[in-house]
Amino acid sequence: MAGQExxxxxxEGADVPEAxxxxxxxxxxxxxxxxxxxxxxxxxxxxxxxxxxxxxxxxALPLWAALRDDPEFRARVGRAWVENHEAAGGAAAPTxxxxxxxxxxxxxxxxxxxxxxxxxxxxxxxxxxAAARRLEGxxxxxxxxxxxxxxxxxxxxxxxDELAGLxxxxxxxxxxxxxxxxxxxxxxxxxxxDAERAxxxxxxxxxxxxxxxxDLRAVAAExxxxxxxxxxxxxxxxxxxxxxxxxxxxxxxxxxxxxxxxPVRDLPADLVAPPEVAPHPRPxxxxxxxxxxxxxxxxxxxxxxxxxxxxxxxxxxxxxHTTLVDQRRLLVDGMAALAAQTGAEVTCCxxxxxxxxxxxxxxGVRVLFTAGETADDLLRxxxxxxxxxxxxxxxxxxxxxxxxxxxxxxxxxxxxxLVERLxxx
Length: 425
What we know:
Layout (H helix, E strand, L loop, with lengths): L17 H15 L12 H4 L3 H7 L1 H10 L1 H17 L9 H14 L13 H136 L33 H8 L5 E5 H8 L5 H19 L2 E6 L14 E5 L5 H11 L6 E4 L3 H9 L3 E3 L1 H9 L2
Parallel strand pairs: 1-2, 1-4, 2-3, 4-5
Helix pairs in contact: 1-3, 1-4, 1-5, 1-6, 4-5, 8-13, 9-10, 9-13
């Protein structure tokens, strides 16, 4: 029956009329435009590039061959025919006329249904002419296909020869690749050993560099310390010389004032036969007791005099019942007033103790705290640093300190003398 399914290929061995074939090719050309490029049959890739108007005419043979030999493409075209008829009102709707009959034959052929009775009859004369033209065209197509077959066979032989050459080249390249991989593995192993040796050498060089840098820093620090010590020694020597010179000059001026020397009125020529003049002795402060505060004033008023105070020795003598902080404050304040009155340089030395708050600097008074030594040792070093001939007065009741500073040329006065002098200011 007309609606019964036939097995695939039923009725396809018969000659398909030209009109039905042309209708099928046109429908296939329209469907080809909607197929994704990745799912396009290989034989129709070139046809898909044609312009839509030329696709059915220029690609008729590939399209017909795909319809006949590619079931997937034929099924896709059949689904497109069914969708078109369902959109137009159903594929089972009755149709009239040759065009409708031809369209039904297209659908029947695509769905493997009997289609011969659906093809409209044609004029026998026209069919004979069309058959003759088709035969002539088929003969030309056969000749063209034979030519293409010969060319394809030649191409196949050339491709086979080229494939054989490529296979030989591939085997050679594989052999070279195996040899290169073996050499690369050997080179990688050697490079790894070289890298290990280089890393060890680098670590050793880094250690040597660190040692050299440490030695360089030590040498630089030692050099800086020596340079600082040399500069300090030079400055100390220059200061001592300058201070000694100023002391000598000021002492000469003070001696001139103390002796009340008159200005020079006689020239050497006038004194060839000087008259005898009885000497007039001047009183002086020499021979006074060190317990006399007036002697302390006389010493401190001498040019460039320097008073060095044993801090806690004096403060505990003057203010024994107060705290150390108050003792330092009272002593430093009194020494500032004494320095302002006499113009002498004043230095107070205190034993350094952990946790003690340093005394604020007072104008005219140098306050020193010991570090790693006693105030007695600091006093001895200060006296030793002064140039010979400068007036140095050390206020302390420590007998050992008194003995040492007097041996170095300094005056020593008891702590009580200084306290008494401070109390009568």
